[in-house]
Design a protein that fits this description.
6 helices, six-stranded mixed β-sheet, alpha/beta
């Protein structure tokens, strides 16, 4: 099995972390923020075959560049249909109504369960709270390499995602983190939608939302 390479691209005015995962000449993208030109150029520079674009949720700062990548590479897009309502919500409230005709894209519904991505197992975790359709993507450890989870705006280093936008839920968010993220191995690396990488162990110990 080829080793997994993870590259981070900070895109758009909200400085959204978008991830390019590659192995054996193939790649997937997790989230694609506004103006993904640098990300697209990197895919072409390395001659990678883009096999999929996986979205943690459908807020514009995580999905604004998907249409450009989809049109450029023809890769399928995967997202939760539970966030479809954001197309009818104004941008002021976290939706994409005013820009829907420019950024909308076809996607295949995806939900919790096991998949095989880049010739390795990937587990889709249902982690609602920030949005109803928030998903996290967990790659278990391989050999001596620690596992990793891409959590979108569910959890950050010593912080959690906001829940004041339409259909956000604080109790649901905290429950998702406890029951989906904190049950992962302590050395699991957490790649969040904004800010630096952290680990499950670090957040269990230092995240103020969970300290007794």
């Amino acid at each position: 099995m080829n080793s997994l390479t993870i590259e981070t691209f900070v895109l758009g005015p909200d400085e959204t972390n978008c991830y390019l995962l590659s192995a054996g000449g193939e790649a997937v993208v997790i989230d694609a923020g506004v103006d993904p030109g640098r990300l697209a150029a990197r895919i072409e520079e390395q001659g990678l075959a883009l096999r999929g674009i996986y979205l943690t949720h459908l807020h514009i700062d995580h999905s604004g560049g998907v249409r450009e990548l989809h049109d450029r590479f023809g890769a399928p897009v995967y997202a939760s249909p539970n966030d479809e309502f954001l197309k009818e919500i104004s941008m002021e409230a976290g939706g994409i109504r005013e820009l829907a005709s420019f950024v909308d894209f076809p996607y295949e519904p995806v939900g919790p369960g096991r998949r095989r991505v880049l010739d390795r197992p990937m587990v889709v975790l249902d982690t609602p709270g920030h949005t109803p359709g928030s998903l996290s993507y967990f790659f278990p450890s391989v050999g001596s390499s620690a596992g990793c989870v891409f959590s979108g705006d569910v959890i950050f280093m010593i912080a959690v995602g906001r829940t004041d936008l339409p259909r956000g839920s604080g109790p649901e968010l905290i429950g998702s983190i406890r029951s989906r993220i904190f049950i992962l191995p302590d050395d699991t690396r957490i790649y969040s939608g904004h800010g630096p990488m952290t680990t499950v162990a670090h957040e269990k110990k230092y995240n103020p939302h969970f300290m007794v």
